[in-house]
Design goal:
The chain is built from six helices and 24 strands. The protein is mainly beta and 398 residues long. It starts with a helix and ends in a 13-residue tail after the last strand.
């Protein structure tokens, strides 16, 4: 985040000052509190602790941004951040403990700003102040002289992302729903979350149930769908992708749907994306384009395309007559899926299969981009101008 902060043109000295102020307040490892100290957290919302950010351009289905790693939090403060300073050494004068509220104990999702007004939280705060064990949050206060430990390894969860102009609804076996039901947003699915972003949506689903996911297309388009199993090695560890199934270039028609049955116990290898037309008739059944193991699921680097142009040039660097354009692609991760080129500034794209021969006077610029098997799409790609920009000056008479 320091690099991102600097890259955005912000003042790094301000960030350092904020970090110093934060550490002076609750760096429990270096400055253990003189009295017992309890941190209250909520874990029912996924909160990104690292975000890869890059813009989209000329892309129908490329990732505009992708949340790389997650830690459970309440939507504002990641759980990992909340407990980062709780490693008070054994034998310290005070002890630090964490008590975590789950969604079911709060009666639903609770925003960070209103957490302390929840009845379950108020009850436990009173009990802690009276030196009684809390009854609604997990992770009892540590005994005197002991450092804090959490309630156990976090449960894995599924993230489903869909990039395109789509809406979604998820049903479990009890018909609890998350998403848009008859144009009304509904969330009766325990432990689930739905986030709409520019260019797509993201769903978080506990692995304790089986689900039916339905995506409805709002336009004729190609959609990218990714299902990722996130796991953490233990308490306080960051969630990382364990395995992932990627459906690339899923063709949807207006009002068409794509349906996916999710059962984490069965793994991701057997997933089938069922496509239906606008009338609900079956159209196709698609297996994943890619099945990624743990190292491959953490590949977030797009391929790199290079372009070689051969042809006759004038003294002003303008190509004339037929020009041959050859594309080469390198990928350091899971491998290249496809390379496309555009002759109309990205309005339309065609698959590259062999060197192109174009007439320079008819094609001002050639664009090219590639995508790998993990769904990482190159942006902005590579371009080569065949005709120089012309500057026309008006002739002003006397």
């Amino acid at each position: 985040y320091r690099q991102l902060f600097s890259a955005k043109g912000q003042n790094p000295a301000l960030l350092a000052e904020a970090e110093s102020f934060h550490s002076s307040l609750d760096d429990f490892g270096a400055n253990p509190p003189p009295v017992p100290y309890t941190l209250l957290t909520a874990d029912h919302r996924p909160t990104a602790v690292e975000v890869r950010e890059y813009p989209c351009g000329f892309s129908q289905n490329g990732l505009c941004d992708d949340q790389i790693r997650f830690s459970l939090g309440d939507g504002t403060v990641p759980w990992l951040s909340a407990v980062a300073g709780t490693n008070a050494p054994n034998g310290s004068a005070g002890t630090v403990s964490v008590c975590t509220f789950h969604q079911d104990s709060l009666g639903g999702e609770v925003e960070h700003s209103t957490l302390l007004s929840a009845p379950a939280v108020i009850m436990d705060v009173k009990r802690i102040l009276l030196n009684l064990a809390p009854v609604n949050c997990e992770g009892l206060p540590a005994a005197a002289g002991q450092s804090e430990t959490s309630a156990g390894a976090p449960a894995p969860w599924l993230q489903v992302t869909a990039w395109g102009d789509v809406s979604a609804v998820v049903l479990n076996q009890a018909n609890n729903a998350l998403g848009w039901v008859n144009d009304v947003f509904t969330n009766t699915l325990p432990g689930a979350a739905y986030v709409e972003t520019d260019g797509g949506l993201s769903l978080r689903l506990p692995v304790s149930a089986t689900y039916t996911l339905t995506l409805r297309s709002l336009a004729a388009q190609f959609v990218l769908v990714r299902v990722t199993d996130y796991r953490a090695a233990g308490p306080g560890e960051v969630f990382n992708p364990y395995q992932s199934a990627v459906f690339i270039e899923v063709p949807l028609v207006v009002s068409g749907t794509a349906q996916l049955s999710l059962d984490d116990a069965a793994g991701l290898a057997g997933l089938q994306l069922q496509l239906f037309d606008a009338q609900g008739a079956p159209a196709a059944a698609l297996p994943p384009t890619s099945l990624l193991d743990q190292p491959q699921a953490q590949d977030y680097t797009p391929p790199l395309t290079t372009m070689a142009v051969q042809g006759t040039q004038t003294a002003f660097a303008a190509y004339t007559g037929p020009v041959t354009v050859t594309l080469s692609v390198a990928d350091s991760g899971v491998g290249v899926l496809a390379t496309d080129y555009s002759l109309d500034a990205g309005q339309t794209w065609q698959a590259y299969t062999a060197p192109l021969v174009v007439v320079a006077e008819q094609v001002p610029v050639v664009w090219a981009r590639s995508m790998d098997l993990a769904g990482n799409q190159e942006y902005p790609g590579v371009s080569q101008r065949l005709q120089p920009l012309r500057l026309y000056l008006p002739i002003v008479g006397r």
